[in-house]
Amino acid sequence: MALGLTITMNLLKAALFTLIAFALLLVASAVAAKADLVFGLEKFQSPIAAAVGASFLLLGFILRFWATMLFYQNRLKVISPKPQQTLLTSGPYKFSRNPLYLGIIFILFGAVLLLGSFSAVLFSFVVFGLLDWWTRIEENQLVVTFGKGYLDFKSSVRRWL
Predict the structure, then answer these.
(1) Per-residue pLDDT tens for 85-104?
(2) Cα–Cα distance for residue pair 4/86, rounded to 1 Å
(3) How far apart are the C-alpha atoms of 97 and 83, rounded to whole Å?
(4) pTM score above 0.85
(5) Contact 68, 78 (CB under 8 A)
(6) Using CB atoms within 10 A of its CB, is residue 143 exposed (0-12), middle (13-18) or buried (19+)?
(7) Measured CA distances, 64 to 16, 39, 43 (Å)
(8) From CA 74, how far away is CA 97, in angstroms rounded?
């Protein structure tokens, strides 16, 4: 019975965390898209862009949920100011060292395609650049924390895709 409750609580926490991040990213993209009005930029909307955008949104949501769920299953904090003592290498971490951040990128690019906004495109590239910079800092911390184990993981799994 306790295992079922733990699984349910992990699912609820992962869903809530993912929904909050998803909503914040959509709002940030919409705010960035408002800059198109200021600069007089035209939208680039089409049914194909909308379909691809919706697919990216869904993929980003699923990826973030999956990675978040893995954190909670391993009793880790998704957001932690200090390095944690467990190295995740299963689930989405089998194909990306940063599935949580990759989910952010997918959500942003999906929103960009749905909004058809050049300003949101610029915003998403800035966010990607910041995330790429941040992952390099985190990787240095992971080398210190996990040593050869992380170096082996790093050599076998790509940073993004």
Answers:
(1) 899 999 999 999 999 999 99
(2) 23
(3) 15
(4) yes
(5) yes
(6) middle
(7) 11, 33, 28
(8) 17
Structure tokens at 112: 């960009």
Helix, strand or coil for residue 73?
helix
- Which residue do the tokens 């909004």 mark? 115
Kindly report the backbone phi and psi dihedral angles of residue 116, in degrees, each rounded to the nearest multiple of 5, phi listed first.
65, 40
Per-residue burial over 53-72, b if 16 or more Cβ lie within 10 Å, else e, is beebbebbbebbbbbbbbbb
Contact 57, 115 (CB under 8 A): no
In the chain the first and final C-alpha atoms are separated, in Å, by: 38
